[in-house]
Specification:
Layout: H1 43-65, H2 77-107, H3 111-128, H4 145-158, E1 165-169, E2 174-179, E3 184-190, H5 191-195, H6 199-214, H7 217-237, H8 244-284, H9 286-295, H10 302-310, H11 320-329, H12 333-344, H13 357-365, H14 377-387, H15 391-402
Parallel strand pairs: 1-3
Antiparallel strand pairs: 2-3
Helix pairs in contact: 1-8, 2-3, 2-7, 2-8, 4-6, 6-8, 6-9, 7-8, 8-9, 9-13, 10-11
The chain binds zinc ion (2 copies).
The site of one zinc ion (ZN) has 4 residues, from α6 and α8.
Length: 406
Amino acid sequence: MASAQCPECRHDLPETGSFSAWCPSCNWNVEPTPSPIVWIGGPIERRLVGLRRRFAQRQFEAMLARPPGAPKARRSVGAIVGWGLAAVVNLFPLALLIAGTLIIAGNWPSAGGIIWGGILAIVGILLSLPRRWRLPDGLDRTDAPALHGLVDEIADALGTRRVRRLAVTAEFNASYIATGVRRRPVLVIGLPLWAVLSPQERVAVLSHEFAHGTNRDGFRSGFMGRAAGTLAFLANATAPGSDGLILAPVSGAFAGLAYLIVYLMWQRSQEAEFLADERGAAIAGTTAAVGTLQKTGFWRYMQPVLDPIAYRLPGSDRNFFPAFRRFIAGLPELERQRLQRLMDREAFEESGSHPPRWARARYLESRPAPGSVILSPERSAAIDAETARLEARLTDVLLSQFYPNR
Ligand SMILES: [Zn+2]
Ligand SMILES: [Zn+2]
């Protein structure tokens, strides 16, 4: 069969089979469906994005120049201002409650005082109610001793608190969050990502997440997140309905403040990612830590693996996970190369909090570490046996997410 030519550089295109065609010589079609870049507005926003990019690039170079070992996050003006703003917002409901109570007491027994004070106090109470966030289903220690054993070993190696709960979801990621008034840590493992990691890469993903815990990133993002959430709530509550003219500026101001908090935290969060990578690699080893970076791009193969499963008859083998593992194991070298090119093209400030993956890889490789917690293939297989019983249910979750109208 005559091979096709690249429409850009006229080189012969390599055979890619069922994968999309692309040109290794000039990168033609390396990204067949580019992720949509959403421009918020005109030249000012564009200049802001440009500024942030340059700033992120400079921060990366400064990080790279830092000597390896025991990294500590530095305080920045932006982070302190953001923290202060969040503190004011988080104290706002309490202030409303106190003001309302004082108004009622000061004007007692006037009806006006009771009504106005009462409204303020009730709004204060409503704002301080914890926002409901349902924890995903968990695996407890008796159900998953091998997985909990590994998770505890990594927490101990990093000198951070062991998790209160371990949740397993159908997402293609892993995360570490602090929940409740006492900010107890919860580890969330997305099984699709977990399924395609090598044993040592599993250690790398968990170590990275726990390293955020040693930096108290979870606590910090919880505090900032709560403030941003309150502001977003207020922006929605005051969003213009019929009497838009009066409320629009108020709602806009709340939304603007929410954006400002997120923005001020952004610089801090980029640094936090590099630090979590470095601390995590001290536990898992640099090779495994770098290996996970390319695998975070494997989410794009979930749909092609799910498609044939979605239309299979109920009762037949519909487990997504073994099929996904087989698919990834069979990825042709050329397709892996394409993913690597995609990684190398990422820009700073493209995906919010995370630096581009090539920058994370370069940072990791600038301070190589052998790793201290080793997960043997046998132990990793024991963990697979524990998570296997969640596979059928999580396949159903995936099917309902990807094919809501099936
Ligand atoms: Zn070409
Ligand atoms: Zn992270």
